[in-house]
Design a protein that fits this description.
By secondary structure, this protein is α+β, with helices and mostly antiparallel strands. The chain has a domain of about 60 residues. The protein contains 1 helix and 4 strands; from the N terminus they run αββββ. It has a two-stranded antiparallel ribbon. β1 and β2 form a beta hairpin. The protein is globular, with a radius of gyration of 16 Å.
């Protein structure tokens, strides 16, 4: 069962999204991140290895097609991540 802790959803410029992703990458490099919204605050401690998913898909409906990019990281608090598979290469 999943439980949403903090979410963010909306429309942003490509630059705003890139800046946000750079900030997340810097925090992963540093090993921790604090997120807050209103009275809700969440501290994340990143392990040296995490599960990673990058997915691009088309969501096709009668009203048209939306392209989606999903980026995910996953880790167990008490276990190490599984060994990585072949790397995805960005060109």
């Amino acid at each position: 069962m999943d439980k949403d802790l903090i979410t963010d959803k909306g429309t942003k410029s490509s630059k705003e999204i890139a800046d946000f992703l750079r900030s997340v990458a810097d925090k992963i490099d540093s090993g921790s991140m604090n997120l807050s919204r209103g009275s809700t605050s969440l501290d994340l401690e990143f392990p040296d290895r995490m599960g990673f998913r990058f997915k691009v898909k088309d969501d096709i409906s009668r009203s048209g097609t939306q392209r989606k990019v999903q980026i995910g990281f996953r880790w167990d608090k008490d276990k190490k991540a599984k060994e990585k598979s072949a790397d995805l290469i960005i060109k």
